Structures are given as structure tokens and as C-alpha cells.
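User: Can you help me understand a structure? I only have the sequence.
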Amino acid sequence: MKRLFRLMLMLGSIHFSACDPNENAVVVVEYKQIANFPVYKLASDSNDSTGAGDGMFIMYKITKIKNTGSEAEKFEFDANRVSTITSDKISNDTVTAGNILLVAQNLTTIDVAAGKTENVDRCFIKRAQTSKPKSLLSAQVPVIHQAGPTQPVDMTNVAPDSSVSTVDIALPSTLSSLCSSN
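Assistant: Let's start by predicting it. Here is the structure, written out as C-alpha cells:
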């Protein structure tokens, strides 16, 4: 726990030293954590599966991006700039098969103009790393988005704690259905 505290303190220091903590420029990204799964298959009739190794695959749904501060700038949400935070590791592993697993619902990037709010309702998948993967079976795993030099990003989970679906072996149809319904 001390390591996590030191890591969070370090991240906070980086965030505030690299970014002007100007509340008038902050972007608020609302998301829901939809599902956790240790393994996925790209096709139901396939014997090939991909495991998360020392971690868990986590599917997130971006619901809304608010870029409405009085000093807002154009903002690009990029799933590749999102990192998961577990009790012992920070990870930036994006699942590149998301375009197969989520098809048109897969979110890689989206631009939001200054002064605008975008309703998004698309998902992306990350691999959260930890030395205790089973601890993530139904756990909420917070995320951070790398902020720009003058534009802080506040990632806000709008889902209740008990809303995470645990999926044993995820298939595209399962994940697509979960993304659509949540």
C-alpha cells in the first residue's frame, strides 16, 4: 500500500508540474467500467484464446466528454493515452484486437472542440497489470488520461461499484452486447 501511495503521489506531482491545474481548462471524461475478463477469443468456434497474463482485461465505456471550461482548448481523447491503476502497477496496455472484439463500438480517438460536450457511448479495452490477477475479477480499476501541458483531464467513473460484469471467456458478441446495454 505504501508503494501505491508513493506512486500516486509521484503521478500527482507529474500531473501538476506538467499541467497548469487551471480548473477553467479541465476536461471531464465520464466513463463506466463495464466488464473484467481474464481471457478472450476472437471467434466462438476458435480454439485460440488470448489471456491477460499477470493482469485482467478491462472494458471501459466512455459516456460523455465535457470540454466546456472558459479556457478550454480542442481536446483529443485517445485510448492509447489511458492507463489503468491497480494496487501495485500502472499499465498502458491497450488491447489492439478491440476493433474485432467491439467492431463499430470500439473507441480509439475522438476530438472534442473547445466549449463542447460530446455524448460518446463507445468502449475500449485495456489490460490492467497486477501481481494478483484474481483480485481484479470484479474489482473497479480506475484510469487516468495523460493530460496535455495546459489541459488537465478528470476521468470520472459514473458507474456504481457493483456494476462490473465478470466474463470468464469473452467473445465479440458478449462484449458488443455489454457495451450496447450499459
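Now, to help you interpret it: Residues 1-10, 12-20 have pLDDT under 50 and may be disordered. The longest strand covers residues 116-129. Let me know which part you'd like to focus on.
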